[in-house]
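Write out this protein's structure.
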Amino acid sequence: ASPHAMNDVSCNDCHDVHHGPDLIVSPGNTAEMCFQCHQEEAAQFNMPSRHPVREGKIYCTDCHDPHGTTSYLMFRKETLKATCAQCHMEKSGPFVYEHADNT
């Protein structure tokens, strides 16, 4: 089960059952829907240096998979490095001193 399911978050918390499984409750504003529960993360997106989530230029679901993962941070890729490299390939190395992958 996903971390959402393990925390009693059901499909209906994010999806409108009357309009099909792909329609989220707040279309076009996924971040605000996610931030209802993820308040600590929401505060981080008020910082000057951050991903442009509130502006709608990137979505929580671009990096995190709310459905089919049991990973703690629900990355779409196997590791943090692989997830970030989807958009930040120029920062993926190789480096002289590599740090371990975070999962």
